[in-house]
Amino acid sequence: MSAGLLGSFWRARARWVPHLPAAVALVTALVLVGDACWYFIKPGAAVLNDMDEGYATAFARRMIEGRWLPYVDGVSHRGPVFYWVVALAVRVFGRESWLAMRVLAWALLVSTLLLGFASAALLRRWLMGAIMALTYVAVCLGSLSVHDGLATNAEHVLNVFVLAALPCLIIGLARAERRAAFGWLAAAGALTMLGGLSKQVGLAAFGPYGLWVLCAAVARGEVQRRQRLGLLLAFGLGAVLPLAVVLARYAAAGELSTFWYFFVTYNTKVYVGGIGTHAPSLFELFWTRKFDLLVIAAPLIGVALFHALARARSVRDVPRALDARGAEVTILLQAVVALAISNGGRRDFGHYYLQVLPWAGLFGGWVIERLLDQGAFVSRKRWLRTTVGRLLVVAPAIAIAVAGWTVRVRQYQQKGHGGFKTHDWPICKFVRANSQPGDSIFVWGFDPAPYTACQRRPASRYLYTTFPSGFIPFLNRPPAVEAAQVAPGSQEILLRELTESKPAIIFDSAMTMNNRSIMHYEPFARFVKAGYCRSNANVGGSTPWVQKTGAGCSTP
Predict the structure, then answer these.
(1) Kind of pairing, strands 505-508 and 440-444?
(2) Host H or E run for residue 508
(3) Are residues 455 and 395 in the same domain?
(4) Together in a domain, 90 and 211
């Protein structure tokens, strides 16, 4: 019996052996991601991105101890779903260290790799999924560096949701004539919206996805008209449902206007408006930031158009031609759209381009696999040659990915772990000496890492003080302009929260706001002078203020 099974297994080698390189590549990528993420738990669960991870973790603690409502978005076009995901991780893995962020980063990266591979497998493009996984890992560990590639940023959450929508579309549109297709299409719409509610730039994914659904609804004459309209309706309703739930939650808390301000108004009128939205230099700004990436993306647009329209016999035949190669065209367009919207975010941070990597990897893998299919060296009948050919393609990518991580490990071993913000950070020694574990602290500026690293709760929702100050990062605006950019009611809210929480220590991190000290703002300066004494301790650039005792202050 066993001999017969082994014999049939061996006879089927032409089908399964050529997939071995893809399996090896995927396992290599997963091992590298696991090793990279867990490596940074060794020094006591380190923060990899001072501002982003510090802000999200401290804000998650406030949500857990309060209303679970992310009613203030800090920076970088993040949405409420991102904060809920982080808060859940912090609730499960603890709020007193960076462990939750390390575990969450690992889970998001692994999910991204597996979802990309699953989508490629549904298209019977195994090597395409493997190449996507390897390129994703290589860039995260290489050019984007640990701080952006492995840190828990909203783009990782966005990638998981938007990538999860792709297999839903592939399965649903392959069964367009069945009722089950409605569920798959609704799931695709909901997942895409969840991606956009995690990071606003993710809403651009509705373009390629919606185009595929629309073309399928128009072109598939063999499916009943009612069924085709149902596909569009299911995708649209699926997208509306998460948005409706989020808006209802804010409305129930009386914070709907606050949601609108931070999700729409701040990014469109205050932040983006401040760097040239209404200025003549807008066109120049867009085409000069990451111009090299835009140049690389331009051929993708041409390839996508050619590939999609090659089978079209007329203008009316375009929807059918697009639908005939729907998954491949969608991947191509998603790569282009993701690159354009990452550039259009006007922040030019490395982590913004994380959302490009899965689509660029899938596109590159698709091109390589198509070339292999057309090569005489690769054939199902010649299973040994096929396996060797695929190994030759994948092996350099595996080597680069492994080498990238090896180099990073050596760099950080040479530098030591002093750059990571943990409980051994010098500022935390000052915090422990001048406060109790149950106390709160407040940091004025862009320096939220001490809240979690030093294990103290934030005294205010304003973990970034852009909103009560009107300061916009990277811009030096006149005081009158900044005063007009103060978020409505934010100064009153901050002053009330500081009065209620009575933080044990206030750190004036003015250097993170172009020297805009808390003492430059009269209401806050009065509060600090009335209840705190300035310390001359060196805590790494910030000026610490500790609560007054009965004896008053020993220094002016």
Answers:
(1) parallel
(2) strand 505-508
(3) no
(4) yes
